[in-house]
Amino acid sequence: MSTIIAHTFLTHNRRPSKSVSGMLLCAILSDTLNLLGPTTTEWDRLMVAVLAEIAEVDDIQLLASQQFKAKSKELATMSAPALVNGDQKTFSFDASGFQGDIGFAVVETTDDDAILSRVDQLLPEMVACKKEKNLQCIFLAVVNIVKLHSNLLLCGPTEHALASKAFGGNVTMDGALMDLGGRVSRKKDYIPTITSAIKNGWKKPRDLGRGLSMVDVTQLGKLEVDPNDPHGNVTRVGSVLDSPDMKGKRTCEAAEKESEEKKDDDVEDEPITI
User: How many CB atoms lie within 10 A of CB 65?
Assistant: First the structure.
């Protein structure tokens, strides 16, 4: 969008001010991951060159580096609800094997370890968001914008099954984290791959354990502004997902174990025919 705005200025023979040029330049660098992302176009590169001259920016690489560091520093102070909902988009599907909405959130940072260290906060919030928005699946991709590498958080067995079919990446953290390698763009990498898997017949496997999704939406508490937080962050209070009893159900592997136990119980309960 910023590239289009900058181009519109030029096609109308209007020179944007230094401050406006600076804002547009920063926006393009952010959106294109410093012109290294898969969505980058030649128009992006051209407008960056023009805007940098008008804004009197001598070192574009330094500007991008400082911008990304500032963004990452702010992300470190954000609450789990803010991270899950901040850059989330919803995509609707109506295929033969799958119907419904999928939420896909992205967090771009120079310090992905700082975000991934908060998995215990992020997974329950993803489930809460999924329940409140009536989503069939929800994903959160954590993108390292320096290394151009990403990881995908999986909050339940349905997400695990779909991601395994679509991406097939290595899974760690008891099934809660999938390595997506060099995939960094929701528009170019994530959604097209998920769409392809669904259109090719993926359907939710039967007898999946439910994990945290078994809770009722009325048990999710509510979002409130933390009065003690200097940043005014919104946090979730009173959610059953934060209780100690739910911690053992927070991983996909725990849900899979639950599913296997259910299958064993069903087999034991079947009448024996002689």
Answer: 15
